[in-house]
Design goal:
mainly alpha; two-stranded antiparallel sheet
Amino acid sequence: MKKQSTPRVCVSCQRTYHATKGRTCGTCRRRRTIASGRERVMCRQCGERPAHHWRTRCHVCRAGGHAAWLEQKRRTRRVGAARAGRPFRDLATQQAQVAAKRAATARDRAHREQVHALRALMLKVAMAHGRSRAAAKYWIRYQSDAAFRAAEIARVRARKHLLAARRARPGSLSLQDERRLRTTATTCRYCGEPLTAANRTLDHIIPLSRGGKHIRRNVVPCCRRCNSRKGQRLKYARRDATTRARRA
């Protein structure tokens, strides 16, 4: 059996309403629901924007129109900027700056994607022509990065000047002597492995950083692995290289 509604007095607005339970009327309950955000009510005047909290009109209609609302918002921001001691930027300027920043970000993203795709294609082409992955990456970076290319050119030039100054010292090896050593050497001085055009290098017995000189008695042909492992050591025991060769 359906319960009969009885007249009640709302504790909020003191108006009489008919209900079976509760202490507030439907209008007050609706206001609380809208104010808590559980219900979205559109403006009764324009019908385009949601009403401000539990009121019947939105903030634009309450301000007297969109232009009046923008002016009110601009005035509020101007006062806040003056109190904070910072320059005021109107809404149009801010929107233009945000749009310009978004456009620049989109251009940068598109440019990075194009560069990434181009580098991947160049890597495939370089590796297809017999280059190693490291050599292909170096070549791609040298071709695409202007700053890296300038730094490499400066490094190579400095290296050439250093070699020229080293060869100009009295008693030093000339360029012709270095070429003769490279072409006539057949085995590594340290491990005895046969030398090829890919692994043939020249090593200073006493490193230049330790006071060694670029003379014939201090320069020996060796493989790239022994040259790298010896590093700046003064002595590189031949028995270690021989033992390693026997184990291999």
